Amino acid sequence: MDRTLFTNVTVLDCTGAAPYAGEVLVEGNRIKQVGKAGKALAKQGARIVDGGGATLMPGLIEAHGHISFCDTPTLEGLGDIPPEEHTLKTMKYAKVMLDHGFTAIFSAAAAKPRLDVVIRNAIEEGEIPGPRLRAASPELTVTGGLGDVRRAHIYRETFAICCDGPDEFRKTAREMCREGVDTLKINPSGDEFIPFARAHQTVMNDAEVAAVCEVGKSRGKMIAAHCRSAESVKMALRHGVDVLYHCTLSDAEALDMLEAHKDRVFVAPAMGIMYATAVGEGAGYGIDKNHAVALYFKRELDMCIQNMKKLKKRGVRILPGGDYGFAWTPIGTNARDIEHFIKLLGYEPMEAVMAATKLGGEIMQMGHELGQIKPGYLADILLVDGNPLSDVAMLRDKKRLLAIMKDGSFHKEPQKASKAARAAAE
Ligand SMILES: [Zn+2]
């Protein structure tokens, strides 16, 4: 079995322990041993990687992935991409994520029914490079909901699947299970980009949400939901949704319900897109900071910040993942959400990094073997040039990622640490 021994590294193991000088031995695709406080590990037969003082940490995990959204400036544009081109683009973006240190992705929807599924399978078969991927269905939405870009007078493809009534939702959910998704995605609430289904509006009904949850639960799938409005959060929780995105407009009752389900559910507020839109980064695409949607998102971001602070105090698991995949939140910049957790939500850097690693392992349903540096865990490992806890922005800079290992193999071969990192380690 292949053995790799990382020496001369500062281990940020993401168990909650302070970083320590140590060595880490990888055997096959798993971490075999972690040596602390100068304890040298057996070098026999191992490839030695001298980290030169770099930080060794778990690979990053994206909780709201959209690798088939192709950095689109408009939602309508996604339906115009033919399936063949779309598959190739999604393959490209899977590699982009891994190049940026994301070794696992919990998908928050594919833009066509089989995109996530075929890319996940090809990655697992070793045919193409990419992160571990929990494949999602497209967004199941109602006529006139988020994702329905159709027009009455002309045929147009969309990135969602429009269903009306529990029977249509049930049938579509079953079809998606047949095609091999891991997660069913639904859109119970609207979104401010959508003039006919605003963020505060709840557009699916109980019977529709229940139908998708019934199918998902019976087949061991997870259910993820786009829930901006308070009522959509409650509806999702009533029927057993596992992953609640946004939850930004939660009221007191919704917060209480989230707390009551905290051992089961995950919340990912997706601050990236709200922040980027609010500060005017969409200006090149027709949404500057004075645009009505930008002004609205500034207010929703404020509500999001208040609510996430409350949920964190109550022990709800909150994960970064900010709807990267749009033109002004391009794929690969996903680690910016970790920074938002620190700057906007008041997280300690350690807590924010653990939300993107340890909690990431949990949302992947692999908390017992993914997201931490521990013996027996899967060897998804980054070597970082510097200490991410002193400046988490370095995780957004792929030049600072000196090595990227996934499942025990190097996706990026180890590079030399900078002089500064070496000096800091001496
Ligand atoms: Zn999304």
Layout of strands and helices, then pairs:
Blueprint: E1 3-11, E2 20-27, E3 30-36, E4 47-50, E5 55-58, E6 60-65, H1 76-80, H2 83-99, E7 102-107, H3 115-124, E8 132-134, E9 136-141, E10 160-162, H4 165-179, E11 183-186, H5 206-218, E12 222-227, H6 230-239, E13 243-246, H7 252-260, E14 266-268, H8 271-278, H9 292-313, H10 336-343, H11 349-355, H12 358-363, E15 381-384, E16 401-406, E17 409-412, H13 419-425
Parallel strand pairs: 1-4, 1-5, 6-7, 7-8, 9-10, 9-11, 11-12, 12-13, 13-14
Antiparallel strand pairs: 1-2, 2-3, 5-15, 15-16, 16-17
Helix pairs in contact: 2-3, 4-5, 5-6, 6-7, 8-9, 10-11
Bound molecules: zinc ion.
Zinc ion binds next to loops.
Kindly summarize this structure in a few lines:
With 426 residues, this protein is of the alpha/beta class. Helix content is 32%, strand content 20%.
Assembly context of the chains: single chain
End-to-end gap:
33 Å
Largest sheet: 8 strands, mixed
Mean pLDDT: 96
Q: Round the Cα radius of gyration to an integer and report it.
A: 21 Å
Low-confidence stretches: none
Percent of sequence in beta strands: 15-25%
Number of discrete helical segments: 13
Shape: globular
Question: Helices and strands: which structural class?
Answer: alpha/beta
Strand and helix order: EEEEEEHHEHEEEHEHEHEHEHHHHHEEEH
Q: Which kinds of small molecule does this entry bind, naming each only once?
A: zinc ion
The strand count comes to 17
Summarize the amount of helix as a percent range: 25-40%
Walk me through the structure.
There is one protein chain. 32% of the residues lie in helices and 20% in strands. With 426 residues, the protein is α/β, with parallel strands linked by helices. β13, α7 (252-260) and β14 form a beta-alpha-beta unit. α2 (83-99) crosses α3 (115-124) and α10 packs across α11. The relative contact order is 0.16. Residues 64, 66, 108, 323 line the site of zinc ion.
